[in-house]
Design a protein that fits this description.
- 26% of the residues lie in helices and 40% in strands.
- It has four helices and nine strands.
- The two termini are 12 Å apart.
- The model has no long low-confidence stretch (mean pLDDT 93).
């Protein structure tokens, strides 16, 4: 596994900027993975999403903080598939300043949230909690470099 360098970091940033949704997998109490598509924002390599405060996903993370996720922007043909697969840890955001920061990022990336939230755009949002995901391993998928091309990086 290689350390992450600046050119690959830029590839990651480009994929994150081009893709509003990810498939996020947590571990259920019975040991099986549970995968859900969620919209997300990011601050460098830290990803954030909102989930139901009392959802199965929130319960899963409270019990087991390891997660995996996959992100793939739209593509026209297989020769242009790009994507990310990450493994890391997830934590429920529980401090006011980070909640405000994530709310601002979400409202900037998804302005339609203002219509959904109405006047209540101050974080924390009722019934929701923000999830912070810190990757420890990132796999880059880039078929533009050859069919099935992947590179694995450690994140420190």
């Amino acid at each position: 596994m290689m350390p992450l360098d600046s050119s690959h970091r830029q590839f990651i940033a480009d994929v994150l900027a081009a893709t509003p949704d990810m498939a996020l997998a947590t571990v259920r109490p019975d040991g099986y993975p549970q995968t859900t598509v969620v919209s997300y924002v990011h601050d460098d390599l830290t990803l954030y999403c909102s989930i139901g405060l009392n959802s199965q996903k929130a319960h899963n993370i409270r019990q087991h903080d390891k997660v995996s996720l996959a992100i793939t922007p739209p593509y026209h043909d297989w020769q242009h598939i790009r994507g990310l697969s990450m493994a890391g840890t997830a934590t429920l955001v529980d401090n006011a300043s980070e909640n405000e920061q994530v709310a601002d990022l979400m409202l900037f990336r998804f302005p339609q949230l203002r219509d959904v939230m109405g006047a209540n755009t101050a974080a924390p949002w009722p019934g929701l909690v923000f999830l912070r995901i810190k990757p420890s391993v990132i796999s880059l998928l880039n078929y533009e470099l050859g069919f099935g091309n992947t590179e694995l990086f450690a994140v420190s």
